[in-house]
Specification:
With about 260 residues, the chain is mainly alpha-helical. The chain contains twelve helices and no strands.
């Protein structure tokens, strides 16, 4: 029976291909996160709080059963210790700890007053469930490719970061000189100008602070144009890294 459960959870596959049960659990993880988000909306939680909590309890019970099943089969996993030591080793692994943290709030809430169960702290802790997506091979593969894209282009990204910092600092100084006298509250110091420069260079542009003098508008225009490169350069570098990672993975699979 333990070996059947091992196969059902895909723990006996060295390639870690997801089983239908794993895919169903991934969908439940997404559903539980959606429930936590909906519960934080007053208009929805006030009308459907009982339904949301019932669904959350059902999902948490499923997760608890899965957690206990993984503890039960832990000694049979390839490379793991046998007996109780294998169970303890699995229980102390990062993924198992995330599993426990994710289900604990709801299970504790089942035996505590409703007011304590519904606290914002409990709702936030339940969002730790998103970390369980780390079991997905696709998720782990995407993380590896992202890490490869960063590390393989470290020098290029460092140069891009230096360029970004230079643009932000120089535009802050110029804006201070142009607008410092006209808007002392917003641009009365270089440190105050740094907020405006950062938001402008990253092309967010909240509009809470903006220049009013012709010189200030000229600086803002140039800064906005330079900000396009601030966004485009690192995106291009990382995209190229992702492409190279995909080609390397395909090459290894073919060979």
């Amino acid at each position: 029976m333990r070996r059947k459960v091992l196969a059902l959870l895909g723990e006996d596959d060295p390639q870690g291909k997801p089983t239908y049960l794993n895919k169903a659990i991934d969908l439940l993880i997404v559903a539980s996160i959606v429930l936590a988000v909906l519960e934080s909306e007053p208009g929805i939680s006030s009308r459907h709080l009982s339904l949301l909590r019932t669904l959350d309890i059902v999902i948490s019970v499923v997760f608890a059963v899965e957690y206990l099943a993984r503890l039960w089969i832990a000694p049979l996993k390839p490379g793991n210790s046998r007996g109780v030591s294998g169970v303890i080793k699995y229980a102390l692994s990062p993924l198992a700890i995330i599993d426990l943290i994710a289900i604990a709030p709801t299970l504790i809430g089942m035996i505590t007053p409703v007011e304590f169960y519904g606290t914002s702290v409990f709702r936030l802790v339940r969002l730790v469930r998103i970390g369980r997506l780390g079991r997905s091979n696709r998720f782990r593969e995407s993380i590896k490719r992202f890490h490869y894209a960063i590390t393989s282009n470290k020098n290029e990204l460092t140069i891009s970061t230096i360029y970004t910092g230079t643009v932000i600092f120089i535009s802050s100084v110029l804006m201070y000189l142009a607008e410092g006298g006209a808007q002392k509250d917003q641009f009365g110091s270089i440190s105050r100008c740094l907020w405006w420069s950062l938001i402008t260079v990253t092309t967010i542009g909240y509009g809470d602070v903006y220049p009013v003098t012709p010189a200030g508008k000229a600086v803002a225009s140039i800064t906005a144009l330079l900000g396009i490169a601030v966004i485009a350069i690192p995106i291009g570098i990382i995209s190229s890294g992702f492409s190279n990672a995909a080609k390397e993975a395909d090459f290894k699979s073919d060979s």
